[in-house]
Design goal:
Layout: H1 4-7, E1 10-12, H2 16-32, E2 38-44, H3 45-50, H4 56-64, E3 69-73, E4 84-92, E5 95-106, E6 109-112, H5 129-139, H6 143-151, H7 155-175, H8 190-194, H9 203-223, E7 227-229, H10 239-251, H11 255-275, H12 280-283, H13 286-303, H14 308-320, H15 338-342
Parallel strand pairs: 2-3
Antiparallel strand pairs: 1-7, 2-4, 4-5, 5-6
Helix pairs in contact: 2-4, 6-11, 7-9, 7-11, 9-10, 10-13, 11-13, 13-14
Length: 343
């Protein structure tokens, strides 16, 4: 299996293919032609059809700033090397000085035309839970210890940054009001729900309200083009941060314990990614919010002292409740029902 760094990716929402990929392509192209005084980007295929709602143009403008960029949406049926294709042109004194055709192939990855995709190295030698369970049992290891053995101790510095970004996404989302940018006039709800504290509120109601507010906060930040962490995807990025932050606040778990929980949940996400799919386009929202719920369940059981088998059982119970959940976003956006499914 691949590294957890491939599963937990930090970037700009709302889509790894429509924002993270184009952002990376634009930054690389801008660095390649520092003498340019303006740029032209032409979007094709899915990027042209749903780029406006997915804020592809917004991220390109931000990335090329302060230099101007003209963005064109080409809806023609011309043959494309990939459904998410964009062409970048660098211009100096009205003369073209550079050109590149790039494909945003998913997960924030990009390929220039003619390049072949190199599969990330497998850092986990085992790819089934039965094998991982047996290995951990033979060495009296917990899931986070198996992750450390495979990834090296440097994985904790990466997960520390992941946890920081997750918490900041919650904070920003709880402080922001207004309408999401996709054109559906969807109102942000996190701040309102977070502050909806009644004097006679029961402990159970408060818990439910806060966890839901945190999930709204992160998912709304994603839909608005904020910085989030794929967990395991952009569309399901609100699930894991909401439950882990609430548990840390309620039970006082240390950041180290939360990082270990992220590793435990990440192994479950990696197993799903390797043996099934975390892609909504391929397998519906059960692959996104379903996988996220399974990861969160495993992480929470780990925090409660659960062994690898109990973590996997919790993940299975969570996933079973979301089997058959299809991907049916209104307008192809990540606002309805995606935000609510995270909650």
């Amino acid at each position: 299996m691949e590294s957890l760094k491939e599963l937990y990716r930090i970037g700009t929402g709302p889509s790894s293919s429509h924002t993270m990929g184009p952002e990376r392509a634009a930054r690389r192209f801008k660095e390649k032609y520092p003498q340019a005084d303006r740029f032209l980007v032409t979007l094709y295929g899915s990027l042209a059809k749903t780029g406006k709602g997915h804020l592809t143009d917004d991220i390109l403008v931000k990335t090329f700033a302060p230099l101007p960029v003209e963005i064109r949406f080409d809806l023609s049926d011309k043959p494309l090397p990939h459904p998410n294709t964009l062409e970048l042109t660098a211009i100096e004194n009205d003369k073209e000085i550079g050109f590149e055709r790039v494909m945003s192939v998913g997960g924030g990855k990009i390929l220039s035309e003619g390049e072949t995709e190199d599969a990330p190295a497998d850092v986990y030698p085992l790819s089934t839970f039965a094998d991982i369970k047996a290995y951990c049992a033979s060495r009296h290891m917990r899931l986070w210890q198996y992750a450390e053995e495979c990834e090296g101790t440097e994985i904790w510095d990466y997960l520390k940054e992941v946890w920081r970004c997750m918490r900041e996404a919650v904070t920003r989302g709880l402080e922001t009001e207004g309408t999401l940018k996709g054109g559906l006039d969807v109102q942000r709800k996190a701040k309102m729900l977070y502050r909806q504290n009644h004097i006679d509120e029961s402990a159970e109601t408060r818990e439910n309200r806060l966890v839901c507010a945190y999930a709204y906060a992160v998912s709304e930040e994603n839909a608005a083009g904020g910085i989030i962490v794929t967990a395991p995807t952009c569309g399901s990025c609100g699930v894991l941060p909401s439950v882990l932050l609430y548990m840390q606040e309620r039970r006082g778990f240390t950041d180290t314990e939360i990082l270990h929980a992220l590793a435990a949940g990440g192994i479950i996400g990696n197993l799903i990614k390797t043996n099934a799919s975390i892609s909504g386009a391929e397998c519906g929202c059960q692959a996104e919010c379903g996988s996220a719920a399974a990861m969160a369940a495993a992480a929470l059981v780990y925090l409660e002292g659960g062994n690898p088998q109990q973590c996997a059982d919790a993940a299975a119970f969570a996933l079973m409740n979301l089997l058959g959940l299809v991907c049916d976003p209104v307008g192809g956006l990540v606002e309805v029902p995606c935000v609510y499914r995270n909650v």
